[in-house]
Amino acid sequence: MSKTNLLLIYTGGTIGMIQDRDSGELRPFDLDRILQQVPEIASFGYQLDAHAFANPIDSSNMQPEIWVELAGIIAGNYDAYDGFIVLHGSDTMAYTASALSFMLTNLAKPVLLTGSQLPIGHIRTDAKENLITSIEIAAATLNGKPRVPEVAIYFDYHLYRGNRAIKYNSEKFEAFHSPNYPLLAEAGIRIKYLDNYILPLPVKPFEAALTLDSRVGSMKLFPGLRPSFMEAVLSDDALEVLVMEGFGSGNGPTEKWFVDALRGFIAKGKVVVDITQCHGGSVDLGKYETSTLLKQIGVVGGHDMTFECCITKSMFLLGQGKRGKALAELLEKPLCGELNSVS
Fold first, then answer.
1. Contact 181/197 with Cβ under 8 angstroms?
2. Residues 112/156, Cβ–Cβ less than 8 Å
3. In terms of domains, do 93 and 183 share one?
4. Where in the sequence numbering do the catalytic residues fall?
5. Is the domain of 124 the same as that of 250?
6. CATH number at residue 160
7. Are 125 and 154 within one domain?
8. Which domain holds residue 315?
9. By C-alpha distance, which of 2, 27, 1, 24 is closest to 16?
10. Residue 342 in this model has a pLDDT that exceeds 60
């Protein structure tokens, strides 16, 4: 049997930090030191290679250009490795996982993102378990085929679909939830894979789309929203997609100024996609009177997409040259398991 080859990609984040003894601040250190902290990895017997970003970044500084770089690293090494583990800060991990899920088209190998809430050298760190189990899942096969051929997040004994996960807590080790989709796997004494919820192997060859367009904005509705604020948001001529976080199942104000502002934006060939600001559930435009007008003027229903997913999917589609109606139609269509349509 040939040895399993895995590529570990270190972008930065808490998992690779050490605490400065004098200032108490966390600062990044090199990948070799991370692996030295977890000697158990060697017992797997896998061929584990590493690629570290020259300048590790805090995930709060994540940008679309870095997603393109990361997707390019995976694409450039795709044939040489059986799976990929991306070490990443948790704050924007769900954005990166969502972006990669669209950019890595017809993915037939695991791409797992993981990190930690405490640095790897900390006595009570969660980093070791997250890293060890991510490596095991990335190497796992069933009947000679990858067990999880998709972009996923592993954190605190749970494996989530990448474009379905959200970071919900800044203090708990269980930092992520998947409000609208079941787990892909759960780690206990054994790793239990929930195969019915894992994407099937694609029939088409792998491709990487390395172009994103960040002309996307967002607006969260709230009681007291001022016309001048909304006008300022929509007056950005470069803006192509507005991700609007509506109330409940996609409801919004029915006042004329509000509806007219959105109507005018859409009339310019722009797209407004409505997602719920609730942590769980789905948008169903037209279910209530307060969303019927939105549907009539051409607002797109984002169904049960997370905010992170909707933002990155919009950037991906714009990057593929989609605009207006063509873009709107694809936003409502599942491309890689990111949404369930309302029946």
1. yes
2. no
3. yes
4. 14
5. no
6. 3.40.50.1170
7. yes
8. 216-331
9. 27
10. no
Q: At what angle do helices 93-103 and 64-76 cross, to 10 degrees?
A: 50
CA atoms within 13 A on the CB side of 127: 28
- pLDDT reading at 139 higher than 50: yes
In a domain, 173, yes or no: yes
Number of domains in the chain: 2
Mean pLDDT of the residues in the chain: 92
Same domain as 131, residue 76: yes
pLDDT in tens, 274-298: 999 998 999 998 887 778 899 999 9
pLDDT-derived band of residue 273, with 50, 70 and 90 as boundaries? very high
Parallel/antiparallel/unpaired status of strands 83-87 and 5-10: parallel
Pairing type for strands 83-87 and 111-114 reads: parallel
Q: What is the pLDDT of residues 95-113, one digit of tens each?
A: 999 999 999 999 999 999 9
What residues contact 275, with CB distance under 8 A and at least 6 apart?
Answer: 243, 244, 245, 246, 250, 283, 302, 303, 305, 306, 307, 310
C-alpha dihedral sign at 178, 11, 27, 95: negative
Asked whether the beta carbons of 341 and 302 are under 8 A apart, the reply is no
The structure tokens 């799976």 sit at 83
pTM higher than 0.85, yes or no? yes
* Chain position carrying tokens 């009339």: 267
In this structure, the number of other CB atoms found within 10 A of the CB of residue 315 comes to 25
Provide mean pLDDT across the span 217-237: 96
**Residue 122, pLDDT above cutoff 70:** yes
